[in-house]
Amino acid sequence: MKHLLSINDLSKAESIAILDTAQELARVSDGPMKKLPTLRGRTIVNLFAEDSTRTRISFEAAAKRLSADVINFSAKGSSISKGESLKDTAQTLQAMGADAVIIRHGASGAAQRLADSKWMSGAVINAGDGTHEHPSQALLDAFTIRKHLAKSGEDLTGIKVVIVGDVLHSRVARSNVLLLAKLGADVTLVAPPTLLPVGVESWPCKISYDFDDALVGADAVMMLRIQLERMSEMFFPNAREYSRYFGLNGDRVKSLKPTALVMHPGPMNRGLEITADAADGARSVIVEQVSNGVSVRMAILYMLLAGAPEGEIIGINREVGAL
Predict the structure, then answer these.
(1) Residue limits of the Aspartate/ornithine carbamoyltransferase carbamoyl-P binding domain (predicted)?
(2) What is the pLDDT of residue 320?
(3) Is 244 labelled as part of a ligand binding site?
(4) From CA 149, how far away is CA 36, in angstroms rounded?
(5) Closest Cα partner for 198 from 176, 167, 164, 231?
(6) CA-wise closest residue to 18 among 177, 111, 152
(7) Which residues, including other chains, have CB under 8 Å from residue 163's CB and lie 6 or more apart?
(8) How far apart are CA 62 and CA 272, in angstroms?
(9) Residue 163 pLDDT
(10) 128 is in an annotated binding site
(11) 42 is in an annotated binding site
């Protein structure tokens, strides 16, 4: 595995290997010494042309826990804000000796363009490109679901996941559908017709416009943020009506199975797609998703940069056990 640009880059075996590796590396985060020497001497660049809190900090924490040197490079305060091209930025990073670049960009395909070019030789990790994909978010979501609802080393066969909200503008939704289906889960998308992308019928999932009906038998409910910053027109009459038909509230949470999980990739629009009592309730694993993200992103960096053969976990037990 040279890059991580899309869930389609991963086989089922590779996906499970990342989740298993993350489970082992989670012991580092839970231990007294939160570091491994694995990537000592490597340089990792966080290249974020869009605002981010969870993903950027999560990747930074993951890299530092593997002892890598981290350079944070944001659009604001850099030459990107002056109009510097992606090519010139990449060549600058190559000159600085970057071993990996974690890129978030507003243009769909930017990560692929960077990886396909000869501008730099390091690994490229897609941290979200336009409305295309966000593979590491899907991996941490799958890790969270498996941790609660399946055994280690297993896939997600038989688990019903409902993804609700602004699918049209969501890179998280696409990556989650592809990965969860690959792992055997039964995935249903719920949204008003105006918030579903063209061609969604070809995705490996079911489509529903009835939230309450889709919740029957659900094992996990993943709410998506309404991305108002990407909307140039109205996609629903008003916030109150959207919340009524497609928002997760206390009553809908009570209708769920006792073991069902409430999830959200963040940041949340409280009171719009999810109410405070649903977000902060006993079923919610939203905060846990953030902590799991560090372990999963450690696993991604480990498998890309530590030279582990595909589908194998090499040396982790030994390294973690030595702490």
Answers:
(1) 2-146
(2) 59
(3) no
(4) 29
(5) 167
(6) 152
(7) 173, 176, 177, 187, 188, 189, 190, 205, 222, 224
(8) 32
(9) 98
(10) no
(11) no
Q: Is 283 annotated as a binding residue?
A: no
Per-residue pLDDT, 307? 65
Known binding residue 254? Answer is: no
pLDDT tens-digit profile of 203-241? 999 999 999 999 999 999 999 999 877 665 667 878 899
Domains parsed from the chain with CATH numbers: 7-134+293-321 (3.40.50.1370), 135-288 (3.40.50.1370)
Token output for 51: 């605002």
| 230-240 b/e (C-beta count within 10 Å ≥ 16 → b) | eeeeebbeeee
Distance CA 25, CA 302 (A): 10
pLDDT of residue 318: 54
**Mean pLDDT split into 10-residue runs, the chain, 323 residues:** 94 96 88 87 93 93 96 70 78 89 94 90 95 97 97 89 96 98 98 95 98 98 88 75 95 97 96 97 97 97 78 52 55
Tokens coding 108: 């769909």
289 is in an annotated binding site: no
Give the separation between CA 20 and CA 119, rounded to whole angstroms. Answer: 33
Cα–Cα distance measured from residue 191 to residue 275, given in angstroms and rounded to the nearest whole number:
17
12 labelled ligand-binding: no
